[in-house]
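Exercise: predict the fold of this chain.
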Amino acid sequence: MIRYFILFYLLFSLASCNSTKIFYDYGDILVSWQVDNYFDLTNEQEEWIEGKIISNLDWHRKNELPDYKLFLVEIKELARDGITMKDLNLIFLKFEKKRDKIFEKITPDIALFLNNLSSNQINYFEKKILEDNEELMEELGSDQNRLKKRKEYFFKQMEDWFGELSKNQISKLSKLQNKWYRDSSNLSKNRMLYRLKSQRQFLSLLRSNPDKTTLEKWLREWTSNWTNNANPKRKKRILKNKKRILEVNKILTAEQRLFALKELDSWIKVFEETIKK
């Protein structure tokens, strides 16, 4: 549920530049619709959420998006001749600071919303997440199916950012995917166990009739668990992902890097247009 409050933070994960424009214009409706799907909102709650999202998006457009644009310009310059571990460290550090700033901005609103849920809405939420868990378990399927889906998504992202791949590149990248999957074969199962544990804790908290201060504290601790750089498991996982990026970087051609720079230019242009609107 909390993810739906911070969708505007995930601009870099959206499918296309046009999606960014659409979200800034209709994010309030999209978010309230998703939250309603999990909590069966009253009309008053829908209006409250839409008002908060409009306010936060307006803040984000005016105060954060100009900095995001400069961030993309910096990434473009760093990546012009390929990327290094030093570059990745700088990019990850700045990205995390931007993410943490947004978490801190919206946490009071999330806590206030949760503080006003009825017992019926909490029960409705429990029913929905149980349904989600069942669907997720079905989607996980066999190791072979998971690897297939992961490869399909990976190659789509590669082609979106770098253009057409050669047969030789596809072969090399496929071998890397196989290796990465073997190295993290238990990750999906561990994530599911963590998901179930977090859900139980969250439901228990909501049913304990906590005040807004307690909810804010829990939310900050919860986000800290998966954003804290002091967490050794997280540090190891991020380093592993950075090394994977560098492995892919070695396979790219100069033309494909140029393709990615042009894609970044498209994002920069969209950010400029969105800021002016």
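Check your answer against the key: Residues 1-16 have pLDDT under 50 and may be disordered.
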